[in-house]
Each structure stands twice: as C-alpha cells, then as structure tokens.
Fold these 4 entries.
Entry 1:
Amino acid sequence: MLLVFTNFSALISLLKKVLSRAKFMILAFNIAFACNSTVAANNPVELIFCYENKEFIPHFMGNSTVVPPENPGVVVDILRELDIKESRINIEFIRKPWVRCLKDLASGNVSAVIGSYSSEREKYGVYPKIENKIDHTRAFANVTTCLLHHKSEKIMWDGEKLKLKSPLTVAVPRGYKIAKKLKNMGFIIYITDSLDQAHKLLFFNRVATSISDCTFENFPVYITMNKTPVRNHYGYLILNISFYNKNKILSERLWDHIQKIDKQKHYRNYLN
C-alpha cells in the first residue's frame, strides 16, 4: 500500500519510531536536501537587464531611468516575451547610461545587456556561440546605422568610400563604437549624452551630421538620410560571465528562445 504524506512533521515522527538513530539521521538529511533542491528548482533565476536611459527609437523609448509601462521599445517588448516563454527566469529591467551598464555587466551588478561584439566586452561577457564561434543565428537583432545630414551638405558614401569637400562634424552618443570608424573616415567627432541630443544638434544646425538607426524617419524636411549603412552589425544578448557559468543550460535556452521569437513583428508595431 502506498502512503502519501502531506504533513512533513508526521513523516519525521514515524521514521523516528521505525529506524535506528544513525539510519534516521542519514534519511532525514537526504529528505531535507531533496526538499531544498525542489524549492531551488522551482524558484526562477533573477536576470537583471540593463539598458540605456536615453531614447533610441525604436529600440528604447523615453529619456528616463524609469521603464515606460506602455510602449517601452522593441528591446523591452522582446525580452518581456522571452520572460513569458522561459519560466525559469524573472527579468528585472533597469536603465542607466550605456557606459555604466557595461561597467555593471563587467562587475556582475547586472546580468545582461544588448550589444555588439567586441574583444574587450568578451573579457567579461558571454556571447552565443557554436563551435567556439559567434552564432549570428541567435543574435538579438541585425542593426544598421546610417548618416543623417543637411541636404545642403554634399556627403558621398557608397559603403566603401567617403567623399567630403571638407571635414564635417558628426554628433555621436558617448560610448558608441562607431565613433572610431567615423573618425577614421574623416569626420570630426562631437560626443553627446544621447542620440536624441545628437539629432537635435543636427536639426538646429549645430553639427553637419549625426548617426541614426536606418529605420528612423522622424526628421525635418531639410534633413536627409544616406540609406547606405556606415555600420551593419549584430546585437546580442550579452550575459555576465558569472551568470552564464552558474546557469549554462538556461543561458543557452535563452539564446535559443531569442532565435525563435518573431522580432520583426515587434519592430513593425513601432514603425507603423
């Protein structure tokens, strides 16, 4: 006959009566360990995701340290879907300056960010890989960056060569990797606190050029976009090394889920 005990105290009392002290102590220890393991397995893993506190349409919406309750941006919407699909995690969203997010990822104060690949970031962050190579199929997004400029400026860029009549100033947010490339191309770099500020400097004729996501359309009629990207790269869910080492199977599952999410659906919601 199979007995099912719902009262843990009653079970312990019965065991004391039928087992020797030594056998009882060993069995009690095993039961306690099994119970603790079950509780631990049922508790979701906290994943702290840090993203920029400046608006980057359509990826992040709003200039604030607060996550907007509605229409927070494509990145948050996709990660919220990931949170629903994977019951073993609980994602907490925080917003900070981008450079601070990277520092906190390195120190372990946050679990993840979305960013491009760099050998420097790989010192403290883990990317999805297959056969020890970056797995583009499990990237979070394919991001293209274009140049915005005044129509009066003659900027010829064909994807390989840049032609300028004279050096022009381009506004680039602090911490963006593309600044180095633009400098090598011949631009004068003006660092800003946000992409929104970079756009405003351009719109009010303080700089000749700024960068933008190639899907961006909300600019004045006297501004034009060169649709040939100056940078085409993948963005990845980069996990803190410690988080990954403690949750290797879970981490791989997260990247697998990201691969299957219809990300274009979320982008269409904002672009429309």
Entry 2:
Amino acid sequence: MASITDCVVEGLKYPFNDIKKLLGLGVLFALISALSTFISTQSFEVSTITMNFVENANGTVSQMASSQLPTGNIYLIIGLSVLSFIVSLFILGYQYDIVKFAIDKKPELPGFNDVIDLFVKGIKYFIVVVAYNVIPMIVLFAGMVFGGDVSVMMVFILISVVLFIIAYFLLVMAINNMVAHDSIKKAFDFKEITDNIANFGWGKYVGIIIFTVIVYVIIMVAVSFVLSFITVALSIAIPNQIIAISIVAIIEGLFIDSYASIFFNRVCGSIYRESIK
C-alpha cells in the first residue's frame, strides 16, 4: 500500500501530464472568476442604488417602486449566476473523471469530448456534496435563527462545525465510491464507505486528507501572496481597478485553480484505489 507522501507527490505531478487539458479546465475556472467579478460589480451597484434610496428618501427597501429598482442589473446578476452555476457543474463533472482516472491508475488526464456526460456527472457530484452537508447546514441555520442567546448560538455553531468536519471526511470516500461504481446510490452506502475507510486505516485516512488539505492551502496561500503583488502592479499600470482585478482572477483560475483541483481530486481517487487493495 502506497504511503501518504507517495499519493500526494503523485498528485502534485499529475496535472503536468497534459498541459493542454490542464489549461482546458483552467478556462472553465477563469470563466467562473470573470463571472464572479462581474456579478460582484453589479451587486455592488444594486446595493449602492438601494442604499441611496433609503438614505435620500428616508424609506425602506420594501418601499422602493418597481420603476426605481435597477431591474436590468438584477436580471443580469441572476442570469450570470445561473451561467456560473452551469459552468461549475462542468467543472465538477471533470473532477468526477479525475477521480475515476485515479482509481483506474490512468496516467493521462480526462478529455472534454462528451460535454453532456460531464454535465450529468457534475449534477451527481453536486447532489452528493449537498446531501452530505445538509444536516450541518440545518443545524447552523437553526442556531442563527433560534439561538437568541449568544452562548446558545455558539453551541449550535460548534455542533455544526463538528458535523461539517465529519461530513467532509465521509464525503471524500462517498464520492470515490460513487465514481468507482458509477452509481449515485453508492455514495450513500455507508457500510461500504466505512469498510473502505477501515481497510485503508482510519488514522491513515484522516492523516492523508489533512495532509492533502494542508498542501492545498499552502499552494493557494503562496499563490495568493504572489498574485497580491501582481494585482498592485496592475492597479498602478491600469487606472481601472476592476479590469486589473479581473485579469488577476482570470490568471488564478486559468493556472492555479485548475492545478489545485486536479491535484486534490487525483489524491482522493488514489485513496480509494489503495483502500480496496
């Protein structure tokens, strides 16, 4: 059975096996980044218009007439948000294939030939992620709504954090199990999921996930540090700060987010492969 470092090191090298496909995924991440920047800009404009009305008219948001609402901006935000979600599903579908290729120990990266298949797999991936996080989210929401006392609210938040952590560790193997059998039902076969983890070793399983997350965070923090300098340089060179920020966001999506995504999902798939030996 491969060691923790072996799986992580292989995952770090894997994205470079096909730079074109790495950049292909990067295009999707860059599109998400560009859409997010534009959505944020439009949302800020809507908020500014709304706040100006409240301050100048001494009214409330509910009192704004429909003609006073920036409906064009609102519809644009909704449309772009839907588009961003659809692109995210394609990314999740590609991550699904990365896990599959890791389980099968294929050295190449998946292709983008069957977009419908990617979209369907992305929906499956999304459903499983939501399903595993729904209970922690309900507990957190209950704490925010019903936790009138600060101490009570903190208890709810603490419980939700613990549940999120437990759900996350189970989710990794659940997605692996779903991908391995190409069945969403297998993502909820808790006996098989826990058996696979036990076969891998609970301590080793938790350790490799924590180690992978730490490596992932180090990569993202280091890149963010470098990109912050690039952002400052572009802000000086380009008067329009929104354009400067958009350029940096696109660069991050194109090269960094795609690499980190492939690395992380490759390691996750490798965990499953080792667990069934």
Entry 3:
Amino acid sequence: MEDLLTMLEQIGAIMSNDHFVGTSGSHFDTYINKDALYPYTDKVALVGQMFADKLKTYNVAVVAGPALGGIILSQWTAAALSKLTNQNVLSVYAEKKDGTLQLTRGYDKIVTGKNVAVVEDLTTTGGSLKKAVEAVQAAGGKVVVAAVMVNKNPHVVNSALFGVPFEALAEKIVQVYSPNQCQLCANTIPINTTIGHGKKFFEAKGK
C-alpha cells in the first residue's frame, strides 16, 4: 500500500518552511493541508483502508469523527471496515455545540452501548480528538480506540492523553510554539493568512 506521507507530499498537502497558526492558536513551520486530500476520493479511500487495517482487531461497531474533516474519514473508514470484517459498521460525527463537541441528530443513540472507534485527520495538541472521544463516552458509547491519520506531536498525543488505545497511520513531528514564545515570530517570518488560522490570529489581535 502506498506510503501515506509520500502520498500527501505528492498532492501538495504538506507545506514546509513557512509560518502557520493552528486551530489551538499554536504556531509552527509545517502545515499538513488535509483539505488538499479530500477532493481525491481514490486517495481518501486508501486512507480509509489504512484506518480499517489498523482498527480491524478492535471489534468496532461504529466509527465517529469530529466535524468537519472527521466526517469524511469516519465514512470511508466505516465503509472499509464493513468490507474487511463483513459487518455493517456505522458512521457518525460530533459537531460543535455550546462550546464543545456533541453527538447530535440522533447519533448519540447510535453509539450507546456500542464499541466505537474515533478517528481524526491530524493532531497537534489532540484537543479536538479528545473532545470527540468524550462526546462518544458522554452518549454512552464505549471508545475502544482513538486513531489519527497523521500525529504531529507523538510526545504529547498518545494513549495516555485519551485514556484509550491510540493508533496513528503516520507520524511527522512538527515543532510547535506558543504565540508568546514563537521562534518564527522572533525571526520576523510573516504569518500565512491564507492557509490555517493566521487571519483569525490577526483579527483577534485587532490587526
């Protein structure tokens, strides 16, 4: 099977030597643009198959993901798992509501009492994946594994963080800085306002 990071590089999803701001507000010089992956359904299908291969021993009944990117990955992963295990594996997603992630639209009832795998595209702090895990648990689902396409911070993002088994399809360590201690800012490297959350960063500062 094709190497994941090589595939992402070939479609231009990995951008290096720049200055980006992430969802959590952290700064870093390498950005993995998962939105560059999703138009290629053949590539996304491969990623779903990679997830299925990782998760096949966990007896998963439902795959959940955080909106937005996790919706796509949960669908393709559930479809691949269904074929691989010859079972009807369902797919749901958690979305933002009241400042956190929740299972709405009746999805809470689907996960109740079921073995659930929670999947995400990328992790830097693991925050959104952790919230998705907690959303499933709050709905009465049993999270048997959390998984990510690319783990950018394996020293922090691991099984201990989520309290459940954790799997990653690939690791690409990216140096992450807090906004107040950013070496990229210190070196006056301009923040990318087209990709990532750089524009919101400036808006929050009133610039």
Entry 4:
Amino acid sequence: MKKNIEKIIYILVNLIVISGFAAFIYFNFDRTVEFFCFVMQKTYVTKLILLSFMFFICAYISGFCLCMLFKSKSDELCSAYQKRHENISVEKDENNAKIAALEAKIQTLEAALNSALKNKQ
C-alpha cells in the first residue's frame, strides 16, 4: 500500500513539473537570451526555449541519477540487514536444536539414574 502511494505521488510530482515547464515554454516561446561564456570570452544569443530545455533535461537526468544512487545505497543496507537477520535466525535455530539435544540427553540420564536407584533398593 505504501509503495503504491509513493508511486502515485512520484507520478503526480513529475506531471506537475513537466506541465509547469510546458507552460513556461508556451508563454516564453519567442524570447531570446544573451549570455556570456567565460571560457570562450564571447557573448552568445540563443532562444530561451533551447536554454530552458537543456537545463530541464540536465536537471531531470541528474536528479534521476541521484535518486538511483540513494536507492542503491538503501538496497545494499536492506540486503545487509536481511543477511544479518537470517544469520541470527539460523544461529537461534541451531541453539534451539542444541538445547533440545541436551534436554533429550538429560532425560535419558535421569531415566537411567532412576532405574539404577530402583535396582539398588
């Protein structure tokens, strides 16, 4: 249930961002932008739509990569926790088996002691 809500929120946020970007492009379609390049020491003129589209795509891709990085880290932590939990449960099962074997030995020794005491009397 929680995963479904997260997916719905993710899709809604993406739709809102993309529709906001589309509205920005629609209202600023014919504008141009002048910017100075420090490396080339030149001033360039380009359409605002191209510059906005480049920034949007770069931001979207970098955000996706960042989320995948965090997701892989959390997946690694979850798998490590699962392995630790499995090891603890296996050790617990082994300890329970050892305890059961020792209890059986104790019962056998008690029965032998009782029979030896009865034979002695």
